[in-house]
Amino acid sequence: MYDVIVIGAGPAGLTAGIDAARSGLRTSIIEGEMPGGRAVKAPVIENFPGFPEGITGADLVSRMAEQTKKFGVEMRFPEKVIALDLSGKTKIVSTKKANIKLVHSSSPWVCMVRSFWFLGKPNF
Ligand SMILES: Cc1cc2nc3c(=O)[nH]c(=O)nc-3n(C[C@H](O)[C@H](O)[C@H](O)COP(=O)(O)OP(=O)(O)OC[C@H]3O[C@@H](n4cnc5c(N)ncnc54)[C@H](O)[C@@H]3O)c2cc1C
Questions:
Q1: Which of 76, 114, 116 for mutating ligand 1's site (highest number of atoms within 8 Å of CB)?
Q2: Which stretch, 55-59, 85-89, 103-107, has highest mean pLDDT?
Q3: Model pLDDT for residues 78-92, shown as the tens digit of each residue
Q4: Among residues 61, 9, 17, 55, which one has the least CA distance to residue 39?
Q5: Beta-carbon neighbour count of residue 65 at 10 Å?
Q6: Is-above-0.85 flag for pTM?
Q7: Distance from the CA of 95 to the center of ligand 1, in angstroms?
Q8: CB 11 within 8 A of CB 113
Q9: What distance in Å separates the CA atoms of residue 19 and residue 32, rounded to the nearest whole number?
Q10: Which residues line the pocket of ligand 1, CB cutoff 6 A?
Q11: Which residue has a Cα nearest atom 49 of ligand 1?
């Protein structure tokens, strides 16, 4: 049972996971391939503050993934999410491996895949 499930461990998902876990929420990130998303392919990222010499995408997302560990985020990969059941009080996230995540209805809930993200509120 988690308070927050983040779908996708690209930069957006890793950031969401870090923030949720830092807030004391039980957080899981489910990634269908490898953590890092498209940023892994960036040879150099020069528009991320704090790295004046630039940093490779792989290094940057590796640091982000390390930060999720620090705050106790459970990272599951490779485990593609194939279905969401958001209708009931308990939200169900199903993965390709048929694992099911149950999220308590009264908790904040986040789902994030690429540009789609939904803030978890009952009956959205
Ligand atoms: C070659 C290259 C160079 C780039 N250079 C820069 C740069 O210099 N500066 C910059 O700001 N941006 C750059 N970008 C863009 C940057 O990589 C993206 O903006 C960023 O990765 C978007 O992050 P995201 O988390 O929103 O999505 P993504 O990186 O796309 O991450 C989404 C994640 O969700 C996972 N996922 C998708 N569906 C599911 C599912 N059903 N179940 C589980 N997981 C799922 C995917 O596997 C992926 O890991 C570059 C991109 C590329 C390809």
A1: 114
A2: 55-59
A3: 998 888 887 777 778
A4: 61
A5: 21
A6: yes
A7: 20
A8: no
A9: 21
A10: 7-13, 30-33, 37-39, 41-42, 45, 47, 80-81, 113-114
A11: 37
